[in-house]
Amino acid sequence: MSGLLKIIDGTSRSPLIWFVHCLLRLLSLPYRLVIYWRNVRFDKGHRVTRVSVPVISIGNLTTGGTGKTPMVKYVAQWLRDCGLRVTLLSRGYRAEADQPNDEALELERRLPDVPHLQNPNRVESAQVAIEEFAAQILLLDDGFQHRFLERDLDIVLIDATCPFGYGRLLPAGLLREPVTALNRADVAIITRTDRVSAE
To answer: At residue 48, does pLDDT exceed 60?
Structure first.
């Protein structure tokens, strides 16, 4: 990622890197169009499924880590301590068919009594959580862009060290969506504040 950051941060004076940077900015235009139409359809309720229990989503606007795993762990633990049967739903990025990914293993270690379902189709895993685990509330990990499943609370984490991904959409920046997507969020939490100065 560090090599890519040298290209997208726009600070290098290398002609080759400048050329690649401009190319990435051009490529971000069709990405922007796809995201726009995708969100228009979701805003109209197209292919959005509501399940019978509340859903809380924890996600972000940018690629890379923003501290989602500790936040998911904290919220899941709090819900569990409130006496609710909570189930975690995640996409299972980089997970093998018979082996969960590192994030799932970490959550399983910290919350061994909280079911964690990994499935790219989170509407399907939500139904499994309700029917097989009698879940009373669902926690959607990295769910801000996964809008197929209707949620009751959208929590977005913002990394203080690079809050808006250089202000550009992928692949020219780190933004998954335009910053205006924050209008959908119910709660925004700034993370990694210890890594930046008070100024």
So the answer is: yes
Question: Which of the 8 DSSP states describes residue 56?
Answer: E
The SS3 assignment for 42 reads: helix
Torsion sign (Cα): 6, 11, 13, 19: positive
- Please give the Cα distance from 91 to 95 (Å, whole number): 9
Distance CA 141, CA 72 (A): 7
Give pLDDT tens digits for 114-153. 999 999 999 999 999 999 999 999 999 999 999 999 999 9
Asked if CATH classification 3.40.50.300 holds for the domain at 55-195, the reply, yes or no, is yes
- pTM for the model: 0.89
